[in-house]
Amino acid sequence: xxxxxQPQPGIMDIALYEGGVSSLAGxxxxxxxxxxxxxxxxxxxxxxxxxxxxxxLHRYPSADHTSLRAAIGEVWNVDPDRVICGVGSDEILxxxxxxxxxxxxxxxxxxxxxxIYRIATLAAGGTPVEVPERERTTxxxxxxxxxxxxxxxxxxxxxxxxxxxxIGQSEIARLAEGIxxxxxxVLDGAYAEYxxxxxxxxxxxxxxxxxxxxxxxxxIYGLGGLRIGWxxxxxxxxxxxxxxxxxxxxSSAALATAEAAVRDTDYTEKCRxxxxxLREWMATALAELGVPSDxxxxxxxxxxxxxxxxxxxxxxxxxxxxIIVRQVAGYKLPHCLRITVxxxxxCRRVVHTIAQFKGAKA
Length: 362
Ligand SMILES: *Cc1c(COP(=O)(O)O)cnc(C)c1O
What we know:
Blueprint (H helix, E strand, L loop, with lengths): L30 E2 L11 H10 L12 H11 L6 E4 L1 H13 L5 E5 L4 H9 L3 E5 L8 H7 L4 E7 L11 H10 L5 E5 L13 H6 L3 E6 L12 E4 L2 H10 L7 H12 L1 H24 L11 E5 L3 H13 L2 E2 L1 E2 L8 E5 L3 H18 L1
Parallel strand pairs: 1-10, 3-4, 3-5, 5-6, 6-7
Antiparallel strand pairs: 2-8, 7-8, 9-12, 11-12
Helix pairs in contact: 1-9, 2-9, 3-4, 5-6, 10-12
Bound molecules: pyridoxal-5'-phosphate (PLP).
The site of pyridoxal-5'-phosphate (PLP) has 14 residues, from helix 3.
Organism: Yoonia tamlensis
Pathway: Amino-acid biosynthesis; L-histidine biosynthesis; L-histidine from 5-phospho-alpha-D-ribose 1-diphosphate: step 7/9
Cofactor: pyridoxal 5'-phosphate
């Protein structure tokens, strides 16, 4: 009978993930700044690799991702044997929960942390534990205080989304050192490439056995549509995850395109510099208009308004001219809007529209 058919515990507690809006009724030419995509798209080398992949579509892809892992190993100076590739870093986050979390286990994420941490935890039957942040920044002491003998994973995005803030290497090290022995620290480095000189936790991973890192091709590499991510960590953890990974989880087109993208380090560097320049310009211009933000280390700015009503009114003013940004009430930041750093004209349009909105209100 219908009542006898029930999903696994936790699954019905998952609220459907809401992605960034991508269209507006009646507007044909929208400017989408709601999903932290690279406005310049992928590098030419990546696009050419994708085009070439069309000739091999009848072949099954590599099951061990040797070629992409080797490229990642060379570019990031990591051991390719300890790299695992996934359908977006989302898949790696799900693998971590599936492998290490069950009913009764706890998974810590921060107050304004990425929605997938909670979803992946519930999907595995675990209990998400939300820990407060301090001024929209990860609070290591609060996390350590929330740890229990049931804590299995601690998810930290560094830089964090949607806040754009990050914590320093010594704070991350203190966290890795302080969590209980049965717990793993997962450093989500989706925006790591935007931070000059940041190793995304690599040094810490090499020196410990309880730290894991996830990375993505969806942000600076401009390949969100292809769904490619990777993880790096201790051999034992990678071995566990490879047991549940589908052998053909990555398509041949995704593998080839990602390899070309990661090798094109000149392009990545160009995108990083352009993002930093425009982010600074936009954040400063907004602050002068009375819309402050924390110093962002990623490819977006979390604009703070006086209250929820003003944030919503500004969002509407942007939509009225065809600009879509991200409302972040679901991240407990109802008075904020997350605005992706677009290209130069996009940033100018955002600032111009918010200036008019503020002017109209005054
Ligand atoms: C965008 C983002 C990701 C990337 O997810 P993919 O599945 O790789 O597209 C991961 N973590 C955070 C915090 C993000 O903002």
